[in-house]
Design goal:
Largest sheet: none
Order of helices and strands: HHHH
Number of helices: 4
Structural class: mainly alpha
Strand content: under 5%
Number of domains: 1
Number of strands: 0
């Protein structure tokens, strides 16, 4: 159990660092803007990883890759809507930001968890 908590924490920290960095590159530099990105990730990342863990444990969906992709699409949409709601910036800009942030953090997670930590 402790190992899962350690991996969940590592995934969350990695996601926050990457996605806050991407947001900063996109011009979101105020404490409010970066804090929003971080808080949104504190909500979506553990939920995503918990759902993937539950699927792995109970074998609810055989194709874990398909489930992960579907959940990532849901996260992109949810984060986009939350960014729009809180920051009130352009819809297209926030969608592109959400897509890039999540693609980068997903790819970094794949590299780290599948190749470096194995």
């Amino acid at each position: 159990m402790f190992e899962y908590l350690r991996l969940f924490a590592l995934a969350l920290i990695l996601t926050i660092v990457i996605e806050a960095g991407i947001a900063w590159l996109f011009g979101l530099r105020s404490k409010n803007e970066l804090g929003t990105v971080i808080l949104i990730n504190v909500i979506t990342n553990p939920l995503l990883n918990y759902l993937i863990l539950i699927n792995s444990y109970f074998h609810l969906v055989n194709q874990t890759g398909v489930l992960t992709l579907a959940l990532e699409v849901c996260v992109v949409f949810a984060e986009w809507r939350l960014l729009l709601w809180v920051l009130r910036l352009g819809a297209k800009r926030m969608l592109v930001l959400s897509l890039i942030m999540n693609a980068c953090s997903y790819l970094a997670g794949l590299l780290i968890f599948n190749y470096i930590l194995q």
